Amino acid sequence: MTRRFKPRESWRLFGVLWVGILSCHLWELRDSSGIQLYPKEPNSVLSETASIWVSFPFPPDHGSAEALFTLKDFTGTISGRFKWEGNTLYFLPEPQLKPGTRYVLSFEGTVRDANGLPYECHRTVPFFYRYRSEVSPYVQSVLPTRGEIVSSTQEIVITFNREMDIASFEKGFSLSPNTPHEVQWSDSNRTVRISPLKAWQDRTLYTLSFGNGITDRDGMLLAPYLPTTFLVQEDTDRPYVRSVEVALNDGVTFPPLAADLNTLLRSTDPIKITFSEPMDAKKTRSAVRLTPSLPGTWTWLDDQVLLFLPSTGWETGVSYSLQVGISAEDRTGNRIIPFLPLTFTPKIDPLTVEILLVEDEILLDEDTCSPSHSKTLTLSPPSWSDYTFRFTFHGGSFLTNEEKLAVQRGIQLSCLFPPASPSPLPEGYSWVGGNQLSITYTGFSPSTETERYYYLLTLKGKEGGIRTSSGNGLSEDLVQLLVTGRR
Fold this sequence. Notes:
Blueprint: H1 11-26, E1 36-38, E2 44-46, E3 52-55, H2 62-68, E4 69-73, E5 76-77, E6 80-85, E7 88-93, E8 102-112, E9 118-129, E10 139-143, E11 149-150, E12 156-160, H3 166-172, E13 173-176, E14 181-186, E15 191-196, E16 204-210, E17 228-232, E18 241-247, E19 256-258, H4 261-264, E20 271-275, H5 281-287, E21 288-291, E22 296-302, E23 305-310, E24 320-324, E25 342-344, E26 352-357, E27 362-364, E28 375-377, E29 386-394, H6 401-409, E30 411-417, E31 425-432, E32 436-442, E33 454-459, E34 478-484
Parallel strand pairs: 2-9, 11-17, 28-34
Antiparallel strand pairs: 1-3, 3-7, 4-5, 4-8, 6-7, 8-9, 10-12, 12-15, 13-16, 14-15, 16-17, 18-19, 18-20, 20-23, 21-24, 22-23, 24-25, 26-27, 26-29, 29-32, 30-33, 31-32, 33-34
């Protein structure tokens, strides 16, 4: 939308008013109550023949709709593919959902219709597949607990919520590494005790796994349960770094996501350092260093897990090194086994932009922009001095006013020739959602037969340039040479 102001000397005051009025219209909330999700009711049961879908009362923009859709279970995001039928988006999970499992369907954020108008939608629906896991058997407790350090004669005790089928347990349960042991059931086959015939292997990490075929006495499958690990180690042994992982910032437990920091670490993700046994918090914390340094908070989740929460976000393209010095100790004074520095580069998607020269319908991007090959701007009557540019960003969004103002400051337009000519000034800004910005400039001069007017459009990139709060930024300055056409 373009609005021109006369006389010229009052353009500044009217420009501010115009931006305020336009912003009010652009950010008017639209009714999203017609957007429907299925399953609809929280904690309902999805049958085997039913589908998961989101339906819109308007023709939606497919890309923005698919970007807001997530389906998760206790292990993370569920993979699958989308299928559209009219205004309904269907999600086809691949592989199929697991019976008895609790899933959470979320549709959160801004979705646009086919005309680009935004609708805010915030819906979250937990549901179960085929039957509720509350009615299926589940593991109530496992001793030793996950990550615990135990002696070589420690008894393993597993408690279920109901009587189990012993034959299916023996077939589906596994202990790794396999060590000779004996199994005893009690409490009407609700509790199983597993003891080593002689001893568990010293300094060994054991894993208890519960396969898919374990059932209760009535044949109902055991609810999914993550493998449990414990370490057999005498206290005289030296501690070590068991893992360094990307963590989910849920604000409470910070569950691990993956160990590959190079592939999965995003801008604001925490990293989680897990030690093999309870550590001396003060000595260990002082021995841990991250270079180059990054603003953030180090905190102990428990006596074995140290967490780093970045406050400004990991930098794009920066290689970090995590070091744990030999001064780190466990609670009994055993020095840590030397830890090789871990080097990683966070994977932060770059920000890209498309530039539309609106009046000429010319579309530019990083590959087609050029500081030496000019594009001609067609100026229109009656002023012959105004022109509108539209910038569409991909790979990140600018959601706050502060971010949007920073983007506006990062876009510059200057007159190159004739040298004495003034540069055009922004007459108005217009945002659609967090990804599209239109700017109308005034003050262009049309070229003549004897004199041509050249301008330079610059989008600031790299450090200090245009950047989202999630760390997505332009990798380089984007520069385009412009020349005005004749009147």
